[in-house]
Design brief:
Layout lengths: L25 H18 L1 H6 L1 H30 L2 H33 L13 H7 L5 H7 L5 H7 L2 H17 L5 H22 L2 H16 L2 H5 L1 H25 L4 H7 L1 H10 L2 H14 L4 H14 L2 H17 L6 H14 L9 H12 L4 H37 L4 H4 L4
Helix pairs in contact: 1-10, 1-14, 3-8, 3-9, 3-10, 3-15, 3-16, 4-12, 4-16, 4-17, 4-20, 5-19, 5-20, 8-16, 12-17, 12-20, 14-15, 14-20, 15-16, 15-20, 16-20, 17-18, 17-19, 17-20, 19-20
Length: 426
Amino acid sequence: MARIEIEAPAAPAAIPAAGPSWWPGATTQIFLGLAIGVALGAIRPDVAVTIKPLADAFLRMIKMIIAPLLFSTLVVGIAGTGDMKAMGRIGLKALVYFEVATTIALFLGLGLVNWFQPGAGVSVAGTATTDVAVMATRQQSVTEIFLHLFPTSIFDAMARGDILQVVVFASFFGVALAGIGEKGRPVLEFLESVAQVMFKFTAYVMMFAPLGVMAAMAATVGGRGPGILLTLGKLVGVMYLGLFVFLFIVIGGVALLIRVPFFTFLRAIREPFLIAFTTASSEAALPKALEVMARFGVPRNIVGFVLPTGYSFNLDGTTLYLSIASVFVAQLAGLQMSLGQQLMMMLTLMLTSKGVAGVPRGALVVLTAALGTFGLPLEGAAILLGIDQILDMGRTAVNVTGNCLATAVVARWEGVLDDRQIEQFR
């Protein structure tokens, strides 16, 4: 495979927040937006709900960035490398890591839910199941998941924001571009310019992040109210304990193994982490995560391939949630599942969760289908639907963190992680 030689550009620099020297930085602004949103939702829930369109507008701005940013960065990374064997090796290593991480998340959730028994003593009487019954019909078959990888039109995939289809098309396009050698140089230079423009575009959109975060948190607190957290506080507590353990023990342990300072890594990804947590949207955090990990010393072809692929195959927070939620529903119904039954359900959840990236409330889609398969009551999923926004915030933030670290794992495995660039985040 021919390689198109092109001078590698410097990693995109972060754009400082506009304003005088005393003006708070981007991360501080997001924290302030979060705090104001919580306070507004608690004090004036009627007003808080009405400003939700501000959060929706921010998410739409993010979504319009993703397709061109992802396509340009991935094609430039692959075509610039020009090594199909290397891309295949990167993909295999990424999948191995994804499966190990998600398996750990499943067993961690299984251990916590059996230890704390959060579903014992919670009543499910009178809970509507219409919404979750509809969800059960959305589950994809294995054949549909496989066929869904291949877009019939790249423009349709971009319009729908289907990340995995864009990755597949961009991978083929990058390999073909590398295959024609010097004739492809003008296209490669054009896409390199597009990538730089999109990183600058991302920086401008991120200036609206504090406002979007404030509106999202206000609408969540104002719409759901604090009462539902008291009713199901034990489940929420177990869920966030599991996410905390996974974040600091599992992800922290992996960072130690690959010789990446864990708290330096957390400092580097703080903005995509906060955006994912407050908006409960992995897509919202993707543009910033792509930029940050490129600046963190991970080569662009690895960032562009591993990070979006992980959105379908490495949902650590979602996997942890599914293991806790499924057994929680069994506990609600007073059913004692054997270890073998629980393991079979975990295997089913691990396999079926691969096809719901980008599906709204995708974790509930998978959970509802599994409940029907194993004869568990849909009322339990209906209860979870009421607090899913609160749970979704935590699991989405851990999903993004796990995928950011996955890029560093693969880069270290390939021997191409630039430790000098990591130093800038200390």
